[in-house]
Design goal:
Number of strands: 9
Distance between the termini: 76 Å
Number of helices: 3
Radius of gyration: 21 Å
Keywords: Signal
Number of domains: 1
Largest sheet: 9 strands, antiparallel
Helix content: 10-25%
Strand content: 35-45%
């Protein structure tokens, strides 16, 4: 019985050390996504008139979370093709000019493609608003052109040719209020 008491005491002290070392993440990922502006980092495919499949890398901005009553169709408020091929997001610091000359930058950690869904993967910034990015891999977003190609005077066949079927590689939740000139402003 004397041997069991020191072992029990040792286990209790080790357990208290372990529990104090575990970080507490607040707010939760779900809470962050429900309240934030969201940016999705997408790999998109489209069929051309010649039935060829083309891929592209696209950034999509949502003023409200997708699947909300404000956006039941999952159409982004803004989107921008960053490359006309499936470029990797991981391990590359990407900076681009998007919507009305706003600077967008993102850095997804090298190796993040192997993370499980919902894992912290990197960070992004749109003008002055900071974002935290998570692994996705499942969210589907269909885009009807991008902001540079949307034009009401384009013939229907051309509009159909610009539709993209996209899968979110990563999603990024805004950490604060957006800049004064929100990307969804016209």
């Amino acid at each position: 019985m004397l041997l069991q008491v020191p072992v029990f005491t040792l286990l209790l002290s080790a357990l208290s050390s372990l529990t104090s070392a575990v970080p507490v993440l607040t707010p939760s990922i779900a809470d962050t996504a429900a309240k934030a502006h969201n940016i999705y980092l997408l790999t998109c495919t489209k069929k051309t008139r010649k039935d060829a499949i083309k891929t592209s890398t696209v950034v999509a901005y949502f003023k409200h979370p997708i699947n909300s009553t404000d956006n039941p169709t999952n159409q982004p408020d803004r989107s921008k093709v960053l490359s006309n091929y499936a470029a990797p997001w991981e391990g590359v610091n990407i900076t681009a000019t998007v919507w009305k000359s706003k600077t967008f930058s993102v850095l997804i950690d090298a190796g993040a493609q192997t993370l499980s869904t919902g894992s912290l993967a990197g960070s992004a910034m749109l003008k002055t608003e900071q974002y935290v990015c998570f692994k996705d891999g499942a969210t589907v977003i269909d885009i009807d052109g991008d902001d540079d190609s949307r034009n009401n005077n384009v013939e229907r066949d051309d509009k159909e040719d610009r539709k993209k079927h996209c899968v979110a590689d990563y999603w990024c939740a805004g950490l604060g209020k957006p800049a004064d000139d929100d990307p969804d402003d016209n």
